[in-house]
Design goal:
Layout (H helix, E strand, L loop, with lengths): L2 E3 L2 H9 L6 E4 L16 E3 L7 H13 L5 E3 L1 H7 L3 E5 L9 H9 L7 E5 L4 H14 L3 H27 L6 E7 L4 E2 L4 H7 L3 E2 L13 H7 L3 E4 L6 H5 L3 H4 L2 H4 L2 H4 L3 E4 L1 H5 L6 H12 L13 E3 L4
Parallel strand pairs: 1-2, 1-5, 5-6, 7-9, 7-10, 10-11
Antiparallel strand pairs: 3-4, 7-8, 11-12
Length: 310
């Protein structure tokens, strides 16, 4: 078995299933666990990934307006790696290499005829279905089923503890999750589910649907108790470098979350925006951000931190 994973989340799935040693190639975004960085990189973005969130947004939109793919797949390298399986996705053309890109590259292959495993995680249930799908394709369905069971048990513990606290009088807190800073975008897909599983009230975005655009006026109108800023592909340091775009806005300054010091930065690159095994870690992070008096998992100042507001 020779596996090429072209999504960071599926790379994590492969390793969680105990098949990391079978990987022979990866995408440019696959970086966890650390040893995958030694593998050949089979993809690259067609746009510069440095700069501000606004500049990245403009570059991506310019490419998409021409109906072009955002990423390149190195068909020659793939051919030389002779993979038996390639894992890709059909969920978002901006987030990672798309199924059509991989199919186009596979058509150029002559040495191998790989099985293409396409994932489409739009919500938590989709992630668990994809995990089982990968397990079947890689001949380890029992391991996949065991992992699904383990992760669902972790989720249920958090849900039950949150519900017990709310029943005992804990006030439910309203939450706004920001997935992109400029322009503003709320978090969709599985993120509303994470908020609700730990007892929060999600204000923006809908489970199972793509992330929607939003405005400062929208934020001000709903006035959340908690704001979590977790841009797709950004680590905490990079997010902090743009927080002034939020905190300097007069409407943001008047939010309840701002006045009460409940604005947080969380690592969207490693956690929230990767629909892999660490989605459950993301739920734990979400829980201790929203209800620190109830949940403590030890992620503070590592995966998330309080945002400086002045």
């Amino acid at each position: 078995m020779r596996i090429v994973s072209l999504i960071a989340s599926s790379t994590e799935i492969v390793h969680a299933l105990g098949l990391g040693e079978k990987m022979v190639g990866r995408s440019h975004e696959c970086d966890y666990p650390a040893r995958v960085k030694e593998l050949p990189i089979c993809t690259s973005p067609k746009f510069a990934v440095d700069g501000s969130s606004y500049e990245i947004d403009q570059r991506v939109k310019a490419i998409l307006q021409e109906s072009l793919s955002v990423y390149r797949v190195d068909a020659e390298l793939l051919d030389s790696l002779a993979p038996s399986h390639i894992i890709t996705q059909a969920q978002c053309d901006v987030c990672a290499v798309s199924l059509k890109d991989v199919e186009a590259a596979a058509c150029q292959m002559v040495k191998s005829q790989p099985q293409i495993i396409s994932l489409e995680p739009n919500c938590l249930a989709d992630y668990f279905n994809d995990l089982a799908k990968v397990g079947r394709a890689l001949d380890c369905p029992e391991r996949a089923d065991a992992l699904v069971k383990e992760e669902k048990e972790r989720i249920e513990k958090i849900r039950a503890k949150a519900q017990a606290a709310l029943t005992d009088g804990q006030k439910a807190r309203t939450v706004a999750v920001i997935e992109w800073i400029e322009p503003l975008m709320a978090a969709g897909n599985w993120m509303p589910e994470l908020v609700e599983l730990c007892g929060g009230i999600n204000l923006f975005g809908e489970a199972g649907k793509h992330s929607p655009w939003m405005s400062f006026e929208d934020l001000a109108a709903k006035d959340p108790d908690v704001v979590i800023v977790t841009p797709c592909g950004f680590d905490n340091e990079r997010t902090l470098s743009e927080m002034h775009l939020l905190t300097n806005n007069p409407l943001f300054q008047k939010l309840k979350a701002t006045s009460q010091g409940r604005v947080y930065v969380a690592d969207g690159n490693q956690y929230f925006n990767r629909p892999g095994p660490r989605l459950v870690d993301s739920l734990e992070i979400m829980a201790e951000i929203i209800y620190p008096e109830i949940f403590q998992f030890g992620y503070q100042d590592k995966a998330w931190l309080k945002a400086p507001l002045n």
